[in-house]
Fold these 2 entries.
Entry 1:
Amino acid sequence: MVAESIETAEKQEEGVFILDRLKGLATHSYSRFVLKKAVFYLIVIFIALTFVFAIPRFMPGDPATRLLRPPPTGSDPARLAQFKEIKQAMNAYYGLDKPLHEQYIDFWIHILQFDLGSSYTYYPRTVVEIALPRLIYSLVLVIPVLFISFFLGNWIGGRAAFLKGRFNDLVYLFSIITANAPFYWLGIIIFVYFVTGDNIFLSHPGGISPDISRELSLEFFIDTIRHYFPAFLTLIIVMTGGWATGMRAMTLYEKESEYLLYAKQMGFRTRTMRRYAQRNAILPQFTGLNLRLNELIGMTIIIENIFLWPGIGVLAGQAIGSQDYPLVIGTFLVTLVIVIVGNFFVDITYGFLDPRIKTGHGG
Amino acid sequence: MFGYLRRHQGFTIALCLFFLILFFGFFFPEFRLGLFYYKTEYSTFGFVLADIFPFLDLFIEFPGFVKDPFAGQFDQWGTRLIFESPSEYLLLGTDDYGRDVFSQLAHATQNSLLIGITTSIIVITMAIAIGSIAAYKGGIIDEFLMLITNIVIVFPVYPVLLILAASIRPQDRDLTLIAIILSVTTWPWVARAIRSQVMTLRERDFVNLARVSGMSDLRIAAVEVLPNMFAYLGLLLAIVTGGAIVAEAGISMLGLGPPSPPYITLGSMLYWVVQNESIRSEMYWLYYPPGIILTAFLVILYILHSNLDEIFNPRLKRH
């Protein structure tokens, strides 16, 4: 009896303990911040998916008219009747003859099961099946570029702000040009110079030379790197330029703040002052990281088409060219998911790093 | 709309002059305000360069100089001149179909510029409406509009353009529609910028005076707040034009731009260069010209932007 009552007492204590933790979680400013962001992004996904649902249904025409050529009006009534049958069959297959709200519910059921339909050109392979391997190729391009350009660009920008005179202006000029030359143009230049000209880098559809076998050998690895590098180089140059310009401006602004002016008067070493300035100047860069990530993903899509690196971009180009509608939608959704997940992680990291959010005084 | 411009070349000249005056109009307010630290080297350089571009369009006026960009060039024996290198008659050579690249460039610059200007006009109009309402009314309207703006900002630009442009059949796409599609993806950050400007202006004495004297909100916004923002709006116009031109070329690289036979833009030229694998060849006249024009245009806009940015944010002054 005593043992039982002790047990129940312990359980009650535990229950209270858990409730306390939950309450702590709900009121703590950082977790509130994370929740707010999560809700925001879920709204975005919802709107995007509704958008994806709405567009084909509000465009003129139906699947039969879009995919096949309808017989002209003056022809044989038998042909017209046949086409009408085909049209009705296709509408039934795509569920377009049901009322709109039913279609919407069906749409959501499919989406939640990650079923995006089958592509027209690669029938009967599903869109998800086709898109996922391509996604890996794209991520291999996006993620390293993001990290390396962020650290490299901010490092250059931070240093440049403390350089005297001519170097400063030189870095400024260089970063303007690299950040503002249209990236596809830079890609074409690099292609011409390195692929066509020097042959150091290669570009073949599929991402490797046709005569190399896909096994884990050194040859395969080097060949893949040679195919990978031009796209990587283009993206790095453009992104680093962008970060360097921003960081330089922020650090220059930071240099004017009182504590650094005072430190300069006190005779601090440039290195120490730079470290202090960089630490404060880098925080706004994180807010820009979101938009840059979106930019980067857009750029990657286009750059892949130039260098024929088999990622989502090439898939998108193919899908548009062959009017393969489910595939277009699929690439859009996959890209959107990457963007949202990336943005969400950046937001969380920013919340973690900015001390004002953790203490609830900012954010 | 663009057919009209094509037929009435005089109107196109007037449009270019308007663009000229727009750029020129940036600089008078600054001199009037006596901003003596205003660096003349970069900005006048940028100003001068910015005026050259509209004049490229004037080349279309000289029929002998600029030929039809879609017609193959033939020599006197009727052979199609494919992949000719630049010569006296064909200033930039010909492409894979024998079309004169220089004429393509002239027409492409004009079309790209028209798309850019149209987009910026649409974007500025939308952004003024949304930004100033949000900033002026404040409160829940502000929050709601900012929520919408944030949602649209999060959408990655190129995939959205992908979907929009892919849903519209190639025959239906013309320059105005491309401009509309581009403006849908660009307006959020412009609305934000305008909103912050209006918010700073809202606290000024003359606005408070107007409010006290019973002017309606709309009147205050139109008569008091907006005219003070004209310089900033001009700057935004320039930036959005540049951004739109680059974005249009970007979607053309995927094949989503205006269809090539009736319309040609700088992006289409680059698209064909990649499609035909001409970049694998040594024919520099095919892939350098559109890119050089694009880069030059962007650099000019950036110089203008950063100089005017120094005026609006004096903290970023270079010493």
Entry 2:
Amino acid sequence: MGKTESSLSNMALTLITITLLTGAALGYVYKLTEKPVAIAKEKKQQEAIRLVVPEFDNNPAQEMYLIPTSDGDSLKVFPAKKEGKKVGCAIESISHNGFGGDVKIMVGILPDGTIYNYQVLEHKETPGLGTKMTTWFKPSEEDNVSKASGNAFFNWLFGISNNSGGGNTSIVGVDPTKTKLEVSADGGDIDAITAATISSRAFLEAVRKAWYAYTEIVDTHSSATTKEKNSQEGGMQ
Amino acid sequence: MNQWSNFTKGFFKENPVFVMLLGMCPTLGVTSSAINGLGMGLATTFVLVMSNIVVALVKDFIPEKVRIPSFIVIIASFVTIVEMVMQAWLPALFEALGLFIPLIVVNCIVLGRAEAFASKNSVGSSIIDGLGMGLGFSLALTILGTTRELLGSGKAFGLPIFSESYGMLVFVLAPGAFIALGYLIALINKIRRAG
């Protein structure tokens, strides 16, 4: 250290050289990782779509379209079709009211309006509390599926809570016209995650937004599903 | 100092967390589970070794008055590289560590080793120093993470040890980090005195 004299020109030259070299190195690594990062993000989205709707043979990402919501967001809708017939759609929904920021989820809704499955895409909730939302709102038979994707930790938590709680925590298979998608503390039908009511509220808000977006689609886009929805509403009355 | 003691000093005698109390931000922040602690420790080890190598290589060319900014630029570059590589090939770990990866830049262990060791020693010794300190840091974070995970949710590395209902939730949260670290430091001090 200090073999080079600390003169102004030396110092300026050193700093310029170092920043240039590191800048070039970073640019190179960015180029290298650019593609894998994009692929990883796309893979995650594909994986989420695959998990939340029944088997399909089209490319939902290509047929994606946007649905604006009342509070200014646009939700991405990925229609899933098998042999040309609609088997459900995956809706990427977001809530801005999480405990640590935005909660982004993918919700799959079947043509008959029931929720098929969901997947949490992004969140900043408290580890060990709000993070349980990745499995909390699923029924316990989901354990094996989620374990395969490396969520044994939360699954175990979920299994215990389901056995001991006995309340209704699952949103899978529910029909939002019959079940109130709000935490039970707010008068809804879904039990919140223990000690993480704010995260649960945000999660359910995102699910509700996806559901409203879905009702928009069936009202305006497809007559076949509208008919189904009407008959379903008729059944309710 | 021979190379073996140069390597092992980071584990016990000069452990960055338990003895020197350096890098407290990631130590307290990410250790809510054992696996997060280990991941953070290994990411820091990589940055530590790489920045030690580069600092030891360029130490003769850097004027003394601009050495700190130069070191910080070098360290920050390696942290950014770790962040991009992790995002590309280890997205799951990237999600778990999230915010704390950029904070490796301001981890005083990294700058501390660059300033106190790599800028005065050869490349070879600096690599060994970086490895020893980094692995010592990883070990400390893993011990702290395991302790908190076990006490807080009854698990170690995600494997259930006892039922979660006996867990003390506070240990998974921030106050538990301070409590667990305090007792661990007391324990290490006791062993050090006895030894």
